[in-house]
Design brief:
- By secondary structure, this protein is α/β, with parallel strands linked by helices.
- The chain folds into 2 domains: 10-251 and 441-520, Alkaline Phosphatase, subunit A; 255-270 and 334-432, Gyrase A, domain 2 (2-Layer Sandwich).
- It contains 19 helices and 25 strands.
- The strands form 7 sheets. Strands 1, 2, 5, 6, 7, 8, 9, 21, 22 and 23 form a 10-stranded mixed beta sheet that branches.
- α7 (168-193) packs parallel to α9.
- It is globular.
- The two termini are 33 Å apart.
- It binds zinc ion (ZN).
């Protein structure tokens, strides 16, 4: 190691899932978020571009590795298993590549990670990790004993008791409780274990933006602002950098496009008839998913069901209920896909795989892909414009060793357009934003303050890939050459060491390369 890391100080990253300046800045201008306002004034801030597609999974890993999904081998929540005709939920073990805490750990720096999506099951790092992920159940911390400690001291909750779609009124205090608890736990872990680097994600901001109206959103941001304030009061000293960031942004929904219906109408997707019949029957009798969930929430049945019925069965039951006509659900009907007859398999998020079983050669696949790409780029609605801002082939936007498992097409929604996969729906376009007021967009937030960070500076052109190299640069650790981002030198005061010191790079070392090769062989079933 060329540069000493002992005097580097500490970086604290506060990740706010789905945070967006278009939502936060109006509240700042109204004087409602004094702490964030001060960070903007004393430090620098700006939009930060997410990965394509701007989805939580894999976006958080793009942040922690500084690498695009083609180098990580994960493109979304799900992977497609064509041999088994099913979707598989990805977890942390599916990702390749070093995260900043792996690199810092090898440089003898201790790290703490709290509740970042994509981290379950947790892995061993030089420090501690409280993981988060869709498949999270028992065993969510490293070291394992930390879980008991958090349960005993905080009654640590891995998720809110109530969610807005299930129990609206109860969800608000329930989500607030989670946010407060995350900050309390962050404070405790920072004091007790004193890590050289600390990352905290508040995931709930994404849920808040998706579902609640403006005034409720403002109330939650007040809670977040005050909590960031007390964390800064305790830990922001002359040797500490604080970074606020998000994995992607959110924007007001102004329309929804039913991609499932479009694919069905174009003979690209075929659903199993019996499933659709069941859905339409339940629909005829007025049994809608949100109504049933609402009644269950009102009668407090949910906690009982949670206790007695396993999650997989609860999910199956809920998935079998038809959604309300005007509120197509992203995850509806995936189970009903006819894999023997569907030329494309759509994955919410939104991307498409081509079902190669139905094609003679890769040349045919290529022709088919080019033709549907053009068709999809052309999907327009006369009043509001396109469904997709761009439709990409993976090799147009990604690079790396794992392009082989990439989706055939990645569909980036136009700003404000929500894409749904509800083949049972009746219309392509839907203008009701009720129940889903905001949807993801590419630009999330970046802000930084602390020792030697420029004040009142609006930074342009940052991407989610830039944080990992910038953090390593602060600690004086050489940056792996295959990282996609750049060091954001312009955030440091012009005369400071961090602004003037040359960025140091390092080739992937022998050890990393060997581990990578073994992993690849394992994936192919050869080791
Ligand atoms: Zn997210």
């Amino acid at each position: 190691m060329a540069v000493s890391t002992t005097n580097a100080g500490r970086v604290i990253v506060i990740g706010l899932d789905g945070a967006s300046w278009n939502i936060i800045e109006p509240l700042v201008r109204q004087g409602k978020l004094p702490v964030i306002e001060k960070i903007m004034k004393d430090g620098c801030y700006g939009d930060m571009e997410s990965c394509i597609l701007p989805v939580t999974f894999p976006a958080w890993k793009c942040y922690s590795t500084g690498k695009n999904p083609g180098k990580l081998g994960v493109y979304g929540f799900h992977a497609v298993d064509f041999a088994g005709n099913r979707l598989i939920l990805n977890n942390s073990t599916c990702f390749k590549g070093d995260e900043i805490w792996d690199i810092m750990g090898r440089n003898n720096l201790t790290c703490g990670v709290l509740d970042m999506p994509t981290t379950h099951p947790p892995k061993a790092i030089n420090g501690f990790m409280v993981s988060r992920g869709a498949t999270r159940s028992a065993g969510y911390t490293y070291p394992a004993e930390l879980q008991k400690e958090l349960r005993e001291i905080f009654h640590y909750k891995i998720e809110p008791d109530y969610l807005p779609r299930i129990a609206w009124d109860a969800s608000i205090p329930s989500i607030r409780q989670i946010i407060e608890q995350r900050f309390e736990v962050a404070d405790y872990l920072l004091r007790k274990y004193d890590p050289a680097f600390f990352h905290l994600t508040i995931f709930e901001t994404d849920t808040i933006h998706h579902f609640y109206p403006e005034e409720i959103v403002a109330g939650f941001w007040d809670v977040i602002d005050r909590n960031i304030g007390s964390l800064l009061d305790k830990f922001l000293d002359a040797k500490t950098y604080v970074i606020l960031m998000s994995d992607h942004g959110q924007v007001e929904t102004n329309r929804a496009f039913n991609m499932g219906k479009w694919l069905m109408d174009n003979n690209l997707l075929v659903m199993k008839k019996r499933r659709l019949l069941l859905e339409s029957l339940l629909y005829k009798f007025g049994l809608r998913r949100n109504i049933i969930l609402h009644v269950m929430g009102k009668t407090r049945i949910i906690p009982l069901l949670r206790f007695y019925i396993p999650k997989s069965i609860r999910r199956k039951f809920i998935a079998s209920l038809p959604v309300e006509k005007d509120k197509p659900d992203q995850y509806a009907s995936i189970d009903s896909i006819d894999w023997e007859r569907s030329k494309t398999i759509p994955i919410p998020g939104f991307y498409l795989y081509i079902n190669r079983k139905l094609f003679g050669s890769e040349k045919e696949v290529e022709e088919f892909r080019s033709s549907i790409k053009v068709m999809m780029e052309d999907i327009k609605e006369p009043r509001t414009g396109k469904a997709f801002a761009r439709v990409f082939r993976a090799d147009e936007i990604y690079s790396g060793n794992y392009l082989g498992s990439a989706p055939d097409l990645l569909l980036l929604p136009d700003d404000g357009c929500r894409i749904t996969v509800s083949p049972g729906g009746e219309d392509f376009w839907n203008y009701s934003t009720e129940g889903w007021p905001r949807t993801h967009r590419m630009h999330g937030i970046f802000a930084a303050c602390g020792a030697g960070i420029k004040g009142d500076f609006r930074i342009e052109g940052t991407t989610i890939y830039d944080l990992a190299p910038t953090i390593l640069h602060i600690y004086g650790i050489p940056i792996p050459r295959d990282i996609d981002g750049r060091v954001l030198k312009e955030i440091f005061e012009d005369s400071s060491t961090l602004a003037t010191r040359e960025v140091e790079y390092q080739d992937a070392d022998e050890r990393t390369r060997i581990i990578g090769t073994i992993k690849q062989l394992k994936d192919r079933g050869q080791a």
